[in-house]
Design brief:
2 domains; 5-stranded antiparallel β-sheet; single chain
């Protein structure tokens, strides 16, 4: 029946109702019976579809009912509440100290040093660097000698009173911890206001922004710059000895071996390079294992080193290997920033505000500090407490805060046998450890290049625009 027919029938009913009421009642009953037939047809069709759905469905009724019961609000809310309480309890119990208004901008670097590792040092984009007491967790010295962002800070291993800072003002500064010249040690550590220091012992000026700098043995310094090169400086004379060229983008980090003349530079070009400074030609080994910016690379022992990248992976390497494949790969999901190592334990700060601790022996995840900061965690420093298996973890973030975490226990450290030799425990270089804690291993099989570079750059292109 078409719409036109239905409208004509309704009009006929209305007209007939004026003429004969009995006829109008019959017409109404006919229409109602047609509507009932339509509803009966829809009901039968619905029943048929339900039967087909039950036959094609593979879900068991018991499992379905159990799932429904678990998803009820009465059961969901207690589980969520318990998770929130447990997370808050872990966060509050581990956090030992949080800086308030000492730094007014991003904290790019934190380090542990001084005699018996009794100090922390932080470098910030607010143009200052602060020395903290590990004992009282109070600021002792605030260095204000730079005119740009302080991008890195390093204690010297031989003279524990010397600090090296690299800045965006193109300068390297060496300054001294003159804490106890005129005051008693305990008196100065208890003071709330830090000592202001503005004059360095030595200032070295580069050609561009300096992203990082490190001590090369006792009397030399290596700086990493945004002009795609690294420079070796002589501390006594204040002159540059050599410039290392070869990267295709700005350098992000530099690390030096404590006992051997080896230097590792990391770059935005996705590679890092191992430089041998024992020869005049400064031979270099190029590693291509990452797909994005390499944010840091650190030495582990004599022949191993570890790298972090924006691709979300941390790789461990052996430079004795004939190829550039990592021997251990950790997948952290989020971009990884500047690493720190202490007693065979690796601290990885992540962009998702988490901090992960791994064993560099087997890649096992030992500890996770979730949402350690309000924004991305940029750097960490890690030190073991005296005569115990407890640790202090220092972290700096984009939220302008430095946190100190007291980690009382790590997974797998009950037997106090975690500190083993890397040589005895690491797998052969052709294998990558894969487990649920470390993640799938991925690497690039590009061969390692060993070349000798001249002092002058070849094909140095124009710099990308600075952010």
């Amino acid at each position: 029946m078409t719409d036109l027919d239905q409208s004509s029938n309704i009009s006929n009913i209305c007209l007939s109702s004026l003429e004969n009421p009995f006829v109008s009642k019959i017409r109404h009953r006919q229409l109602l019976s047609q509507i009932e037939k339509e509803f009966d047809g829809l009901l039968l069709e619905n029943i048929t579809l339900r039967k087909e759905l039950k036959q094609s469905s593979s879900i068991n009724n018991n499992v379905y009912e159990t799932t429904i019961n678990k998803l009820r609000a009465v059961n969901i809310f207690p589980m969520i509440r318990n998770r929130i309480i447990l997370r808050r309890r872990n966060q509050s119990s581990d956090l030992l100290f949080s800086s308030n208004n000492h730094h007014r901008d991003v904290i790019w670097d934190v380090q542990v040093g001084g005699f018996d590792n009794q100090y922390f040092v932080s470098a910030s984009a607010d143009k200052t660097s602060i020395i903290w007491s590990r004992k009282t967790l109070r600021p002792l010295i605030q260095y204000q000698g730079h005119y740009g962002s302080v991008n890195s800070c390093r204690f010297q291993c031989f003279d524990h009173d010397l600090v090296l800072t690299a800045s965006g003002d193109h300068e390297l500064h060496i300054w001294k911890l003159s804490l106890y010249d005129n005051k008693d040690e305990q008196q100065q550590e208890n003071e709330m206001t830090p000592l202001i220091l503005r004059n360095p012992i030595l200032a070295l000026r580069g050609d561009d922004v300096l992203s990082c700098a490190d001590w090369l043995q006792r009397d030399q310094i290596v700086s990493a710059s945004w002009n795609r090169s690294a420079t070796i400086w002589q501390v006594e004379t204040g002159s540059s000895l050599r410039t290392l060229y070869g990267h295709n983008a700005e350098l992000t980090h530099v690390s030096c071996h404590q006992t051997k003349p080896f230097v590792i530079t990391s770059s935005h070009d996705g590679t890092f390079r191992l430089w041998d400074c024992r020869t005049s030609s400064h031979s270099v080994q190029i590693f291509n294992g990452h797909t994005k910016t390499v944010n840091s690379t650190l030495f582990i022992g004599d022949v191993h080193f570890v790298s972090s990248s924006d691709d979300g992976f941390v790789h461990m390497w052996d430079f004795r290997s004939t190829n550039s494949s990592p021997i251990l790969s950790l997948e952290c999901i989020s971009p990884c920033n500047r690493l720190s190592i202490s007693n065979d334990i690796l601290a990885v700060p992540l962009d998702n505000r988490d901090i992960h601790l791994y064993s560099i022996i087997n890649g096992k995840k030992l500890y996770v500090q979730r949402q350690a900061h309000k924004r991305s965690v940029q750097c960490t420093a890690f030190v073991q407490c005296t005569n115990s298996m407890e640790f202090l973890l220092v972290s700096g973030s984009l939220d302008c805060h430095m946190h100190v975490w007291h980690i009382k226990k790590l997974k797998g450290t009950n037997n106090n046998k975690l500190m083993k030799s890397i040589e005895e425990s690491i797998v052969p270089s052709s294998e990558i450890i894969k487990n649920e804690n470390s993640g799938e291993g991925q690497y690039n099989k590009k061969p390692t290049k060993r070349i000798s570079l001249s002092e002058k750059p070849n094909n140095i292109n124009s710099m990308m625009e600075k952010r």
